[in-house]
Every structure is written in structure tokens, then in C-alpha cells.
Predict the structure.
Amino acid sequence: MDIAENAALVVVDVQKGFEELDFWGRRNNPAADDNIAALLDVWQSTGRPVVHVRHDSRKPGSPLRVGHEGNGFKEYVERRRGKGTGGELLVTKTVNSAFLGTPDLAAWLRAEGISQLVLTGIQTNMCVETTARMGGNLGFEVLVAFDATYTFDLEGPFGWRRTADELAQATAVSLHGGGFARVVTTDDVVSAAQ
């Protein structure tokens, strides 16, 4: 695997509000936070650009709403912000895709000459997946560090319920098999980026 010298690490919604399990339910992949931190460390030590994405929920009861402590980044992310030698961007959004936030992510990436993205963050099947699909549609080479993402159990129509692992696997199959993104591991990305 080749990681471009200017590949952007896009860290999606790694916010304190996702720790409120009474709201979200059971999550998967307890190693995700360590893997996200490892990716941030490699990106910062190699001078590659990092994009931090924050979801500013408009829903009054959401743990991610503006003004609520949960809107802030998790401590290990906040501690690393601004510490790298590469460019850094903060994108805020109210919908699932980082490409529909402020400032315009696609415009920033193109202005910086960046064509390759590595996605990580929360939730695998929601904002990570939507950002990956849009990134692929917009012509970017998208890699999803699958084990540096996590999600929660979810109920859908007809009483169908899927576990977080099932949802994450379905996302990986759809993204990779559908050609939107290449789904990879944190270890593979770290090895290629060092």
C-alpha cells in the first residue's frame, strides 16, 4: 500500500458525546480509540495534513449538540490538535458527510493538492461511511482504516436489529466491494506511512 506524502487523515466526529452509552447503546471495537491515536501520531510525526471533523448536532437532546460537553473532542484528540508540522483543518457539520460541512472540505483538499484520504472515526456506518462514499464520488482516493472506527447496535424498519459488528462489516463490504473506498487496517496504514 502506498500512502502519499500529502495524504490527509480525516478524523471524523471523535467526540466526548459518543461516550454516553446510555444514549447510544452497545458499541463495538474497543481498540478503535488506540488505533485513532496511533494514526494521529504517525500523521503528525511525518508532517502530513490532518482534518478534524466535528458534528454540531441540531437535535436538542443529542450528546453532540453545541454547548454540551459531549460536543468537544475526546481528550486524546484534543491533546494532539495543533501539534503536528503538517497542515490542520477543522470542519464542522450538521449532517453525515464531512464534505457538506464548513469550510468546504473538497475545495480545501484540492487547493492543497491532496488526492488521497485516510478516514477514521465514529460512527463506521454513519458519518465515516457517508464521507467515504462522497469522497469516492468526488474523485478522491479514499482509504478507510476499519479498525480505527466504531459504531453502535441499531434498530431499523420492521423490527430488524443489527449489532454494531454486523453494521460495521456491512459498511466495509459496501465501501470496498462497491468501489467507494479501500478498507484497510491501521497497522497497514501506519507501516506504509512511516
Remarks:
- DSSP finds seven helices and eight strands in the chain.
- The mean pLDDT is 97.
